[in-house]
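TL;DR need structure tokens for one chain.
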Amino acid sequence: MNKGFSLKLVSFFCLLILAGIVLSGCATSAQAQQAPTLQPTETAVPLTTPTALPEVAPIALPEVNWDDPAVLAAHKKAMKPAFESDVDRFVKSNRYLIIANLDLSKDAVIRGAERVRYTNQSNDALDIVVFRLYPNGPTLGGRSTVTSITANGVAVEPSYSTLRSVMGVPLPEPLKPGESVEFKIDFSVVMTRNLFTAYGRFGYVNDVVSSTSWYPTLSVYEPEHGWWSELPNPNGDPGYSEIGLYDVRLTVPSDLTVAMSGTIIETTDNGNGTTTYRDVTGPMRDHAFQASKRYMITSQDVDGTTVNVVSYKDRAALKTDGTQDALKFGVQSVDIYNQVFGEYPYKELDIVQNPTPSGVEFPGLVQIAQTAWMKGQPYLEIVIAHEVGHQWFYGLVGNNQVDHPWLDESLTSYTEIVYMRAYYANSPNKEAQKHEDAYKRDYNGYTGSGQADQPLNLPVKNYLSQGYGAIIYRKGPVFYLELERLLGQDVVYKALNVYFERFKYQVAVSADVRNVFEEVSSKDLHELFKEWVGIVDADPIPSTRLGYYVTEAAS
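>> reply
TL;DR here they are.
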């Protein structure tokens, strides 16, 4: 997410985004227990949409043979040809089949059902599996309700945290290492019209549905720590998840244009004013979609990936419309990052005009501020370069965004510099150097004003006042510039390429960054990381780092 710490912001954007930065979270967190009852993890506040929805008939879900090659073949349609075989390595990853209907009669209401197969990748026997209902947390402010759930065909009663954003599902019998369990969940999600929260990542505003973190999502099990059940802080990103394969069948009013993570492989006109889109993904961390009757799509290919720019057609005739600029910046970003970090494996990437005041990232889809969507607006270029950079760092190389935001946000802020250097290499205006200097100036100005110079490797909630932006978004890229000063730019680029290729599709921790830089540079960097980043050896390792499919992928 780029919350405005890019350094070419005009003052209007700065005011918008800094207003969001000073939000503070007051909730405490506790680790989910490996037992049928979860400990409360949140401060209780009323849900924003308390009115119950009328009962409707449950959605019928087809049976799924998760190991069927034909099922996997559908997911390969979302991958570039050279990466289709990657899907085969994730048969035992988190698997989702979701069927959902979007209704806009009053508010934005999603009624859905999902089959979810979870495979225990840890060495522990599990009595409970934890899902996150992100809309119920104060970060998103919606309402998600689960009406029924089965585990391997047995009806079970889940337990919930105070705000019902953490759902623990007891298992009929312990799930041994390597074993799988299938859940069937009926759910609904309400986004109140004009709801605007979390930098616009989730809501129904200006006739635009931003549906992110919208389905019951498997949490992450960490050996020796248990299930991740922490309350996200509103200043940062709310999610933490592992790679999975998604097959989503979404029915919407036919006058809506839809953009989704992954690739739409089937479109069906139902003859009743609705259209059903079947969307599949390759190995992706989350699933998101945008829908609006205002949208139109402009596309261009780069290195086998189709970049879809999804913009407001009611503004297309304006001389100030930034759609062509957005397409150019998106294509350039993908091209540059492919060369520096490693190749983007998916067939599509959606860049979507959105009510957000800045930019927000999701796998295969990024939201870009409608107020920045103007021809010649410097911030449009920076925010697109930033959010596209997240496809490499967050989307493909994952991390716990709540507890270790520097892993994706600091690095992605540095990708802006990588972009500027490559695109403006022959420019006499030295745009890249100005970008670097501005980061250094702003960080030094923050610390010079007497503000606390905190380490990078802290949870979002630990940064005080404007510290989250100043440390994560400014000190972070300055740290990578310091690595360049000590090791050389070529070594830093090589290390990031190794880091990307080694941890692609996985969840990385802070020690992984240090270890790769030490390996590539042949230097001991412990003291440097301790000075800038803090302690990096105590981060919990997610369960899939122990799973056989990750071991196989790394071999």
